[in-house]
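ok so for the tutorial part 2 we go from a plain amino acid sequence to predicted structure tokens. step 1 is just haveing the sequence, like this:
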Amino acid sequence: MKKGFIKVLAVSLCIVFSGCVASTTDMQILQNDLVSLTNRYNAQQLEIKRLKAEVSKIKKASEEGKRDKETFEALRDSQVALNDRIDALNRDMQELQNRIDESLYKIEKALSDAETERSVNRAQIDQIMKELAEMKTKIEALNTRVAELKSIPKQEAQKPQPEETVKKTEPKTPEDFYRLALEKLKAGKTIEARKDFESFIKRFPDSDLADNAQYWIGESYYKEGNYEDAILAYDALIKKYPDSNKIAAAKLKQAYSFLKIGDKNATMIILKEILKSYPKSDEAKLAKKKLEELKKTGNRKQ
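step 2 — the prediction. this is what the tokens look like for a chain of 302 residues:
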């Protein structure tokens, strides 16, 4: 019984000092049972010691010549009482031992469940890191492709525009140049607008509107259906102007662009990032709605 008690105590201490978290209720029950077990064990040892001393005293008296019937019966009764008491204490200790075993089982199960959950979380994180690496590779490939395409002379396919019937005032300030470029974009003149925004950034790199101009460059590509160039333009905004108020919008349109070219995984990763980094923004509401649509689509396919 002493070895069993030490084993239970050792296991309990191991659980407590291992840093694992189990049910507070189960731990309290186990703690109470251990205290009770210790107290009963100590009481048992004292009771057995007392009974043994009494039996020893009676045996000594018997050996000294007091072998009368009364001494014999006292010796027999004490021996029987000792055996009965030991049996009763052993039963009591066994009952408590069973309770402790049950508490240990619950705690060990809780620890096992927690370890399983941690393993699942680690696997999910590894998958996300893998998908991010793949997305980075795709963006780098798109950058290489754009560099190759820029080295080839292009002929603009834009139709000649009719002559303006109303004479416009020549732009003078950065705001004027920006406004005229934005008007062209709204009118559907995406190529002209893009050129004006690129020229604006080169001419006024320190303007507060430079990040907005980069965003509209991405929008011009998006309107043309050139989603790969749009992704790169939005990415340039994110990297070059990290404090811009257009970051959330750029990420959202970047996610839409990935979806347009069939990369659902990249789309979902970016949408989740928007929810995490900009939870109160209008873009977060749109990202949440798009995620729900994608999940429903995925469930139907399954």
